[in-house]
């Protein structure tokens, strides 16, 4: 059975069986209720079969697909296409059936909890319980999808009938000459497989299809069980990841005490909630796959009272849309695959800090060339800015600054002028910014760090606004550096996170020296002084800290 974690001793349990199934995209539709201090709604997961299962062998369902592909190649593809159209038309006229009952009581006895507490994904998603949960299949055990989950109330899990989306049949291939129910299941999974594998040039079409599929009706509730660290989902009679539903919808709500988000008040005593970069990451915000190797994209619609501003990790800068009386919705999306732990949200009465229109951002290019040699990208396919000549020439990406009302003037005086200088200095050193825009938010005083970088958004402590510009500029440069090292490039394992921090710490000195327009000797002296101070601080920490506190977990 899963056990509770001692944050002072234990590693974070990574339960998700990413080797068997991998989430490629999340669609969130959530409401933020400050009255109840909960975030509630749905999340739709689009999945593919994982590499480990592909390596160990194909399931029976895959063999059927292979046979049908051969039939299409033999000249029956037109007949197969007609067959799919017939299936879709028939099914769209009757999509309200319920195949399975949901249960969150009594399932714990059926699902084997391994108690795995390492820094890698759980080795197997196949239930190894001695008591059979599936008596209809002569003791053969159902495949179990395991997601990282904590401090959430899961209400319902269901398969999504993506075939109900008008026009979706163009993503369907042959599903073979098998019985109707199996054919329909394979059709749904093939549609999802085709959708997630669309080329980077089709990202707008892909996002639109994700949105439509996320609103499609359910076609059968799935069995699930929750533990302290995981959500386990199965479909009766399905023994392989290949045959497991590739699109599932989870209805859930957070808990006020959930450790992924902080419900608090800002420095102007107005309510707010934000992700705090906690030791348990985002698993108390939504069910997900936490291992850093689990890369996914996402899109999210967040509803909140019209007095709030919703900031989030997203490539776009949305305008709020009135959806109900007194409520507005905000829509964000991300097309660069990243770990779910980098998802960030902040909802509050934030004030946007704007400068006078007469002041312009002036790019800074140093006299000597620091920029790295541009190379061909070798990452997975997505709409990459590094290949865009327009993005390459953009020294200062679009940016906004938000803060509580009482700190607005201080941000206008210190932070706002520094931001374009630091962005330009980073571009002069490393080239194209990995992300298309940036929001900077001064978070509440209970924030436990000086800063935290996430895709398209940086959280800064109010402490950086004290004193002169040096502290603010240095910290801003550090967090901007994480766009390259920590986000666009990251460690495969959290115990190696020091690598990202090392690069960001090194680059903050280079960025800040460039932003200050220091001469070469001045920049060298400043870097040497900071290096000495860091060495002394590290030496003191090692001499005065217990050995177990000196090891990353």
From TrEMBL:
Q: Where is this region: Disordered?
A: 110-133
**Record's compositionally biased regions (Low complexity):** 121-132
Molecular function terms from GO: metalloaminopeptidase activity; zinc ion binding
Mark out the compositionally biased spans (Basic and acidic residues).
110-120
Q: In this protein, which residues make up the domain named Peptidase M1 membrane alanine aminopeptidase? A: 433-517
Gene3D superfamilies associated with the record: Neutral Protease Domain 2, tricorn interacting facor f3 domain
Origin superkingdom: Eukaryota
Q: Which InterPro entries match?
A: Aminopeptidase_N-like_N_sf, AOPep, Peptidase_M1_dom, Peptidase_M4/M1_CTD_sf
- Output the Gene Ontology cellular-component terms: nucleolus
PANTHER family per the record?
Answer: AMINOPEPTIDASE O
What is the protein name given in its UniProt record? Aminopeptidase O-like isoform X2
